[in-house]
């Protein structure tokens, strides 16, 4: 039963997610898995990244289709015949070729890696499977390690999209965050990036910092909108235990971030972005001119995430090893230990957590649709689960009714979607919807499980 349901749900899209674990300096707010480099043997690290990418790609069942010239186009055409519309995110057909549509170099600070390392990992991916020329290849870049010439070298290595950690356009805030760049550096990097990767540059802007006020933050956003490209991510500061900022707030040397002000910044920021033509497609992500990130999208399509590198997280079905259950996989955190494991076993997976069947229906029908907010929910849902309508699922739910009355959720003959106001509190909406969905999923008879 599980195999059938999973075969149906899992998208053919594989998204390698290589991590570069080093940073120039620890930012005061960050609790990601990162290390300050001390005599890093980059050639050895590169070999390990390549080895682990090859192992995980093989385990995930992705492989190269050797069909000759034009084969990729043939595969795509065959998929369309099987019911997948080109450009549609609906990917529930059982006839879906495993393929890589995006690679995302994250970290840490991957712009500190040499372009040669990035090229080697991409080469490993391209050897293992078909990597179409239009695949999205993103690199997270910090302004101080992303001069124009370095960015150009990353472009030559195969990167075609940048995500710039700008964080703020206020020097005092950047200092508070422990960043190594100034507002001027950030704007200069942004300009260079857009020259080299027009239409494919994203920026991260933080909000809700200690003592930050709504007006000045909105002015930063406006300034950014005068020069940014088509993708913006807004991140509300999360005060993480173990960080310098957490200690400073705890000791009273900095005021605690004000959640009311942060909520106001977020709401006003969304409106400003909407006014500027951006469409919100996730809690933090905004895009215009169709510049949505394929990598972000893969998650909501229940695609296969292959976390490669120290501390990387992934989620995939190890089909290449005969697996049927989607797993969360966490790689060993510390780079030297991770490298030893990769050299011994071909990968440094520290933990494998089988994801229950109950988790499976969630990303595709609920999270995905809510994040993209289309109207065709009922129609797509019917393809996914013909035995159970959306009304069966949510129509009688008291919680859903309340959310509708509050204007956060809309349920009608066209489907289920969240309103503009609802999108702002998506996480809490999803909690309610997921618990209802899981309840209904458990009550299904096995005969109602779609066959894939
Ligand atoms: C892990 S960082 C990696 C990117 C790159 N190293 C940088 O700093 O720009 C990705 C993004 O996560 C966000 N981030 C990291 N820690 C955060 C925190 N505690 N609260 C909110 N956002 C955070 C930052 O905006 C950052 O750009
Ligand atoms: S550069 Fe990025 S990953 Fe590194 S410490 Fe700063 S926020 Fe974290």
UniProtKB/TrEMBL annotation:
What name is this protein filed under? Radical S-adenosyl methionine domain-containing protein
Q: What does this protein do?
A: May be a heme chaperone, appears to bind heme. Homologous bacterial proteins do not have oxygen-independent coproporphyrinogen-III oxidase activity. Binds 1 [4Fe-4S] cluster. The cluster is coordinated with 3 cysteines and an exchangeable S-adenosyl-L-methionine.
Swiss-Prot/TrEMBL keywords? 4Fe-4S, Chaperone, Heme, Iron, Iron-sulfur, Metal-binding, Mitochondrion, S-adenosyl-L-methionine, Transit peptide
Among PROSITE patterns, the record links this protein to:
RADICAL_SAM
What Gene3D superfamilies would the database entry show? 3.30.750.200
What protein family does this chain belong to?
Answer: Belongs to the anaerobic coproporphyrinogen-III oxidase family. HemW subfamily.
Q: Does the UniProt entry include the keyword Transit peptide?
A: yes
Q: Where in the cell is it found?
A: Mitochondrion
> GO CC terms on record?
mitochondrion
**One example of a Gene Ontology biological process annotation:** porphyrin-containing compound biosynthetic process
Pfam families attached to this UniProt entry: Radical_SAM
Q: What Gene Ontology terms describe what this protein does at the molecular function level? A: 4 iron, 4 sulfur cluster binding; coproporphyrinogen oxidase activity; metal ion binding
Annotated Radical SAM core domain ranges read 8-279
InterPro entries per record? Coproporphyrinogen-III_oxidase, Elp3/MiaA/NifB-like_rSAM, HemW-like, rSAM, rSAM_sf
């Amino acid at each position: 039963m599980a195999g059938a349901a999973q075969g149906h749900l899992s998208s053919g899209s594989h998204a390698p997610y290589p991590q570069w674990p080093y940073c120039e300096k620890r930012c005061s707010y960050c609790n990601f898995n990162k290390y300050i480099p001390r005599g890093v043997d980059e050639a050895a690290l590169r070999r390990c990244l390549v080895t682990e990418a090859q192992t995980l790609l093989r385990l995930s069942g992705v492989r190269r289709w050797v069909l000759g010239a034009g084969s990729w186009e043939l595969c795509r055409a065959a998929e369309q015949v099987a019911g997948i519309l080109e450009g549609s995110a609906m990917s529930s057909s059982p006839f879906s070729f495993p393929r890589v549509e995006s690679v995302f170099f994250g970290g840490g600070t991957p712009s500190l890696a040499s372009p040669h390392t990035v090229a080697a990992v991409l080469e490993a991916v391209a050897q293992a499977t078909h990597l179409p020329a239009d695949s999205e290849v993103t690199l997270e870049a910090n302004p101080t390690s992303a001069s124009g010439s370095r960015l150009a070298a990353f472009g030559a290595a195969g990167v075609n999209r940048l995500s710039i950690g700008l964080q703020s356009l206020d020097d005092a805030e950047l200092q508070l965050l422990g960043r190594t760049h100034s507002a001027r550096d950030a704007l200069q990097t942004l300009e260079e990036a857009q020259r080299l990767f027009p239409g494919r540059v994203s920026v991260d802007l933080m909000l809700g910092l200690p003592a930050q006020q709504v007006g000045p933050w909105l002015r930063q956003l406006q300034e950014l909108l005068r020069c940014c490209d088509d993708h913006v991510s807004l991140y509300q500061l999360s005060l993480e235990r173990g960080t310098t900022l957490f200690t400073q707030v705890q000791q009273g040397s900095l005021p605690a971030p004000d959640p009311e002000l942060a909520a106001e910044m977020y709401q006003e920021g969304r409106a400003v972005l909407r006014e500027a033509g951006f469409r919100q497609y996730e809690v933090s992500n905004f895009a215009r001119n169709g510049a949505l990130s394929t990598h972000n999208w893969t998650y909501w399509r229940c695609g296969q995430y292959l976390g490669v590198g120290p501390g990387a997280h992934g989620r995939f079905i190890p089909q290449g090893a005969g697996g049927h259950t989607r797993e969360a996989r966490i790689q060993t955190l510390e780079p030297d230990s991770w490298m030893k494991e990769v050299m011994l076993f071909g990968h440094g997976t520290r933990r494998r957590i089988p994801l229950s069947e109950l988790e499976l229906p969630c990303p595709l029908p609920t999270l995905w649709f809510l994040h993209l907010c289309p109207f065709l929910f009922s129609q797509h849902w019917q393809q996914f689960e013909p035995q159970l309508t959306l009304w069966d699922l949510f129509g009688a739910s008291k919680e859903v009714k309340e959310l509708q009355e509050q204007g956060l959720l809309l349920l009608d003959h066209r489907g289920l979607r969240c309103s503009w106001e609802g999108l702002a509190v998506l996480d809490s909406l999803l909690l309610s919807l997921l618990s209802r969905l899981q309840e209904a999923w458990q009550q299904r008879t096995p005969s109602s499980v779609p066959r894939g």
